[in-house]
Amino acid sequence: MSSKYISKEDILIFLASMGVELSKNTKMPMEDLTKRLGNALDASQQFDQLLGTKTVDPAEFPKWPGGDILKASHRNNIQESFTGTGATSQRKKGPLSAKEDTFRELRQSILAISHCCDEGTKDIYYMDGDEKWAIFVRILRVYKIKNDVPLFLFVYRQLVANPSSPMETQMQSFPAESRATIKVSELERRILLRLFEKNAKRLPPTYSIADGTDGAIASFVLPLCPIGMLGLGKLTANPGCEVCGKKTTSRCMQCLSVVYCGKECQTADWKTHKSTCRSLKGGSWHKIKVNSPGAQLPYSFILSRLDPTQGGGKDTVSDGTPPPDIHEGKVFLAKFQLSLSSNAIPGHMLIYDRTRSFQLFWLRKSDPDLFDEGVYMMRDKLKFYRWVRRTGDYEFDLCLDRAPAADPVW
Ligand SMILES: [Zn+2]
Ligand SMILES: [Zn+2]
Predict the structure, then answer these.
(1) Does residue 123 register a pLDDT over 50?
(2) Ligand 1 center to residue 269 CA distance, Å?
(3) Percentage of the residues of the chain whose pLDDT score is greater than 70
(4) Which one of 22, 55, 105, 362 counts the least CB within 10 Å of its CB?
(5) Residue 36: phi, psi to the nearest 5?
(6) In what helix (H) or strand (E) does residue 303 lie, and over which residues does it extend?
(7) Phi/psi class of residue 238: alpha, beta or left (left: φ > 0; alpha: ψ in -120 to 50)?
(8) CA nearest 396: which of 338, 344, 336?
(9) What is the predicted pLDDT for the residue at 404?
């Protein structure tokens, strides 16, 4: 098996560490999962917003004017600088960290490039604890792209120690005034290679850099940041046919709650699905109204979500336009969360869909009986998943007395 292979289980763990939570039992084919991993790495680099082109020629950008690269890498990282939970130092726990921390570790590893550039260190070795293998990275140049984000152009090479050539000896073949060693786990190594390879393919085909690092591959990387809500929504959407994971084309017409690739899988799943389907059938639906802009009604209000990485730290926008109904009038599952925070809006539930295409603040005072029924059904969990249907720009139907057969993972 290739040393770059990432198992399905590891892809799911890594995606979950990025906030992309797919079911552990997802039937999604490996090819689709791999693609999602690539898209997630791009979302974390904000690739589409910052570059977005198939081919990236760094030479088209101005060189970094010098200094404060670490600071600039943080600025690109609004959410983290707010929460203070992120990659704030170049110190890493390294290979001892839990797999569930891999994304945080990876962000620190990439942030270390900024730190090294500020210090004038050009060579970085991403290495395991036993110095059995390493990814050697030599930073060539830093460019300034959109939004004052740095782009790091480098060459990299995999090194594997062997009895006749221990790591120390191999490192000596790349003379450097100073070098940094960063401990990474096995999974992180594989993800780093995936990221470097992906970007390497984006450099113009003529890109080759003669600088004495034989066999090294040219690539680039952008600072990594947590993925915004909208991005997470896209990355968790359409997990595929309930049965086989393939692209879906049909939906159970009775309840609209499950999707299949076709008639065959739908028939095969009927035994499992029929109880949910039938239970949803007799559910009672209640209309709730949402304030349209400017109205002074005791209703709830709705906001479209924005990526936290845009909009200067705000994650919602209320510009007067209702969020689009991405469900096209169909029934979908929404998460209801009761807010107990006294400094938030008192007596409200936050309702949102899997893709966070909207964020609805449902106020108790707009329908106390229904609201209290919901709170009662939540018991002490303070959240549940229920079926919702959009009936207008500022109208929703809720079905609180029918629970999904299994809670989703988002
Ligand atoms: Zn299928
Ligand atoms: Zn059904």
Answers:
(1) yes
(2) 9
(3) 82
(4) 55
(5) -65, -40
(6) strand 301-305
(7) left
(8) 336
(9) 80
* pTM for the model: 0.73
In 3D space, the residue among 87, 207, 93, 84 whose CA is nearest the CA of residue 155 turns out to be 207
State in Å: Cα 279 to ligand 2 middle: 9
Query: How many angstroms separate the alpha carbon of residue 229 from the centre of ligand 1?
Result: 28
Residue 210: which residues within 8 A CB-CB, separation 6 or more? Answer: none
> Inter-axis angle of helices 30-45 and 8-17, to 10 degrees?
30
How far does the centroid of ligand 2 lie from the alpha carbon of residue 369, in Å?
A: 29
Pick the residue with more confidence: 17 or 275? 17
Ligand nearest to the CA of 266: 1
Pairing type for strands 123-127 and 179-183 reads parallel
Residue 156's pLDDT is what?
95
Pairing of strands 259-260, 149-160: unpaired
Q: Nearest Cα to 374, choosing from 408, 401, 340, 355?
A: 401
CA distance 219 to 222: 11
The amino acid at residue 117 is: C
* Both tokens assigned to 210: 């003669």
Amino acid at residue number 106: L
The CA 33 to ligand 1 mean position distance, Å, reads: 16
Half-sphere exposure of 319 (CA within 13 A, CB side): 10
Residues 279/200, Cβ–Cβ less than 8 Å: no
- Mind listing the pLDDT tens digit for each residue in 203-261? 998 887 666 667 789 999 999 998 876 777 778 777 788 888 888 878 787 776 778 89
> Between β-strands 149-160 and 133-145, what pairing exists: parallel, antiparallel or unpaired?
antiparallel
283-319 burial, b at 16+ Cβ within 10 Å, e below that, comes to bebeebbbbbeeeeeebbbbbbbbbbbeeeeebbeee
Task: Give the amino acid at 82.
Answer: F
Tens digits of residue pLDDT in 75-112: 655 444 333 333 433 445 455 568 888 999 999 999 99
Lowest mean pLDDT, pick from 215-219, 351-355, 369-373, 387-391: 351-355
Task: Please check the confidence at residue 266 and state whether its pLDDT lies above 70.
Answer: yes
